[in-house]
Amino acid sequence: MRIIDTHAHIYPDAIALRAAKSIGDFYEIPMFKSGTVDELIREGNKAGIEKQLVHSVAVTWERAAAINDFIKQSIDAHPNRFIGFGAMHPDHPKMEKELDRVVSLGLRGIKLHPDFQHFHLDDENCIRLFRQMAERKLDLLVHTGDKRYEYSAPERMARALDKVPNLRAICAHLGGWSVWDQAYKVLAGRDNVWIDTCSSLYALAPEEAAAIIRAYGADRAFFATDYPMWSPVEELERFMALPLTGEEQCMILAENFIAFMGGVL
After folding, report:
1. How do the domains of the chain map onto residue ranges?
2. Which of 86, 97, 113, 160 could bridge 143 with an S-S bond, Cβ 3.0-4.6 Å?
């Protein structure tokens, strides 16, 4: 089976340990690794992962350009390994210009984390960002769901997608971290919604996770690790323990994402 990891955070070596710790503190979950590029490749190899979608989050708009440069540099260093999504913040005063630069860098989408970035998914500025992304055919990878906050509530994502139906959205963590049952009720069945599996399988019974995947459609799910939070080997083991058919496994591990990206990776 081909295996693609569609959700991996990376950071420059100088700040990786500090950045990973801040994420672990936010979720009160010990981090597996520090988030460096070399570690990602090494740990991915142990799981037989051949390609990884890499990104990082611009906690403030001022950080977006530097992050986008770093993601581009990482792809250039590993062109056969990485696919990149850029960073953006809805409050960016030169949003359109930076999105144009994201396109020029060859990045395929934008990663957002509303709970880190402190905006609601259906804010006016966020809707404006989504419209600008859709015009440029930039896809969205978004942290969705957190029972502690309203920023990334699946209902807000649904309202935003109603307003921007031509935006393709990958709603991470089976559509809604810690609110999985709530999420699929408002997001499943939409033509512009896909999900990934990361930071979910540790918390759900295999039968429950498989049922959620099928609620969205096995053809709309991507395998993902959320590195550096989890071990790719352990995430793959959790995934393979789900009561899915062999065909569904192949689709989720690679085939769906290859099709999403246009058929060639």
Report:
1. 4-260
2. 113
> Would you say residue 4 has pLDDT above 90?
yes
Q: Which class is 4-260 in CATH?
A: alpha beta
Residue 136 near residue 100, CB atoms below 8 Å: yes
Whether 193 and 169 have beta carbons less than 8 Å apart is answered as yes
Single out the residue of 230, 182, 178 nearest to residue 23, CA to CA. 230
Q: Which residues contact 213 (CB under 8 A, 6 or more apart)?
A: 174, 195, 197, 221, 242, 244, 248, 252
pLDDT at 29 over 90: no
pLDDT 10s digits, 178-230: 999 999 999 999 999 999 999 999 999 999 999 999 999 999 999 999 999 99
Three-state DSSP string of the chain: CCCEEEEEECCCHHHHHHHHHHHHHHHCCCCCCCCCHHHHHHHHHHCCCCEEEEECCCCCHHHHHHHHHHHHHHHHHCCCCEEECEECCCCCCCHHHHHHHHHHCCCCEEEECHHHHCCCCCCHHHHHHHHHHHHCCCEEEECCCCCCCCCCCHHHHHHHHHHCCCCCEEECCCCCCCCHHHHHHHHCCCCCEEEECCCCCCCCCHHHHHHHHHHHCHHHEECCCCECCCCHHHHHHHHHCCCCCHHHHHHHHHHHHHHHCCCCC
% of the chain at pLDDT higher than 90: 89
Q: Could you read off the pLDDT of 103-119 as tens digits, one per residue?
A: 999 999 999 999 999 99
Taking the C-alpha atoms of residue 262 and residue 259, their distance in angstroms, rounded to an integer, is: 5
Please state, in angstroms and rounded to a whole number, the distance separating the CA atoms of residues 251 and 216: 14
